[in-house]
Specification:
Pfam family, one: Peripla_BP_4
Oligomer: single chain
Family: Belongs to the bacterial solute-binding protein 2 family.
Number of helices: 10
Keywords: Signal
Strand order of the largest sheet: 2-1-3-4-5-11
Strand content: 15-25%
Structural class: alpha/beta
Bound molecules: alpha-L-arabinofuranose
Subcellular location: Cell envelope
Protein name: ABC transporter substrate-binding protein
Length: about 300
C-alpha cells in the first residue's frame, strides 16, 4: 500500500553504479506519470544509472529502446509493456545477451523464461473488486453499465474487463450495455462517454460507468456534467488507480469507488534485481501488488493529500 511507498530503498543495497534501461509506455495517465517519477526516485535513492526511454504508446518504439539497451550492454532492463503480445523476439535477444528483464505493471503472453520477474497487480482481481462494489451498491435494482476500456490489447484492458464481468455474472439486473476503448486517457474517456450518453437517451438509461482507469473516469465525469446529469448520483462512477484527481472527485461527490494501483513497481523490481545480481536469488515469477478499494467513506481528502505529498 501507500505506506510502503519508497520505504524499501532504505535497506536495499548493491545496485550502486548499475546501469538499468527503462522502457516506459508514455504519459497517457496520471498513474503513468506517478510511476515514472517513483521509478526515477527509486533509481536515484539506490545509485542506479537509469536510462529512461518514453515510447509514446508505441510497441515498436519499446522494441527499439530495448535493442538500444542491449547494444549499450546495460545491467538490466525494466519494461512496462504497452500490449500483451509481440515480445518474444526482442526478449530472446536480451536473454541471449544475458541481460535480465523485469516487467512492470502489465503482463505479456510469452514464455516465462524470457523475463526474470513481473511486478504488477492482479488485474483480474481489480476488475472483480470494482464489479463487486457495484453489485453491493445497486442490490436488486436494474443497472445498465457503460464500460470505458483501456488500451486495446493491453493486459489491464483484457483482465479488468474479465474480472468485472466475473463479478456481475449471476446478477441479471446488471448489464454492460456499451463498451469501448478510451485508451486510458482523459480526453478519449470524455469523448467516448459523450457518445454513450447520446446513444442512451442523453444518459437517462445509464446507471453506472466502469472505467478501466481513473483518468478515463475523470473525462467521463466531465461528459456527464456537460450532459446536465450528476456524476456520482445520477450515474455512478467506478474506476481503478486511486490517483489524486479521483479523490478530489470523491470529495466533490462525483466519483463513487476506485481500486488502488501502487505506482511503486520499481521498488520491488529493484529489490529483486539486487538479490538476483548480488546473491543469485531467483525471485518469484510474479510479484503481486495490493488491490484495495476506496470509496468516499475512506476520507478522500486525506488520501488526496497523502498522494500529493508523495509527488504524484
Ligand atoms: O498498466 C497500468 C495502467 O496503465 C493504469 O491503470 C493506467 O492508468 C495506465 O495507463
Amino acid at each position: 500500500g501507500i505506506g510502503a511507498l519508497l520505504s524499501s530503498a532504505a535497506w536495499a543495497q548493491g545496485l550502486e553504479g548499475k546501469v538499468v534501461g527503462f522502457s516506459q509506455i508514455g504519459s497517457e495517465s496520471g498513474w503513468r506519470a506517478a510511476e515514472t517519477s517513483v521509478t526515477k526516485q527509486q533509481a536515484e535513492a539506490r545509485g542506479v544509472d537509469l536510462k529512461f526511454a518514453d515510447a509514446q504508446q508505441k510497441q515498436e518504439n519499446q522494441i527499439k529502446a530495448i535493442r538500444g539497451f542491449i547494444a549499450q550492454g546495460v545491467d538490466a532492463i525494466l519494461v512496462a509493456p504497452v500490449v500483451a503480445t509481440g515480445w518474444d523476439e526482442v526478449l530472446t535477444e536480451a536473454k541471449e545477451a544475458n541481460i535480465p528483464v523485469i516487467l512492470l505493471d502489465r503482463g505479456i503472453e510469452a514464455p516465462e523464461d524470457l523475463y526474470l520477474t513481473s511486478v504488477a497487480s492482479d488485474q483480474v482481481k481489480e476488475g472483480r473488486v470494482a464489479g463487486e462494489w457495484l453489485v453491493g451498491t445497486v442490490g436488486d435494482k436494474p443497472c445498465n453499465v457503460v464500460e470505458l476500456q483501456g488500451t486495446v490489447g493491453s493486459s489491464p484492458a483484457i483482465n479488468r474487463k474479465q474480472g468485472f464481468e466475473e463479478a456481475i455474472a449471476g446478477h441479471a439486473n446488471i448489464t454492460i450495455v456499451r463498451s469501448q476503448t478510451g485508451d486510458f486517457t482523459r480526453s478519449k474517456g470524455k469523448e467516448v462517454m459523450e457518445g454513450f450518453l447520446k446513444a442512451e437517451d442523453g444518459g437517462k438509461n445509464i446507471c453506472a460507468v466502469y472505467a478501466h482507469n481513473d483518468d478515463m473516469a475523470v473525462g467521463a465525469i466531465q461528459a456527464i456534467k456537460d450532459a446536465g446529469l450528476k456524476p456520482g448520483s445520477d450515474i455512478l462512477v467506478v474506476s481503478i488507480d486511486a490517483v489524486p484527481d479521483i479523490f478530489s472527485a470523491m470529495v466533490a461527490g462525483e466519483a463513487n469507488a476506485t481500486v488502488e494501483l501502487t505506482p511503486n513497481m520499481a521498488g520491488p523490481a529493484f529489490d529483486a534485481l539486487d538479490a538476483y545480481l548480488n546473491a543469485g536469488t531467483v525471485p518469484p515469477k510474479f510479484i503481486i501488488t495490493e488491490s484495495k478499494l476506496y470509496t468516499p467513506a475512506d476520507n478522500p481528502q486525506s488520501e488526496y493529500d497523502t498522494r500529493k505529498g508523495l509527488g504524484y
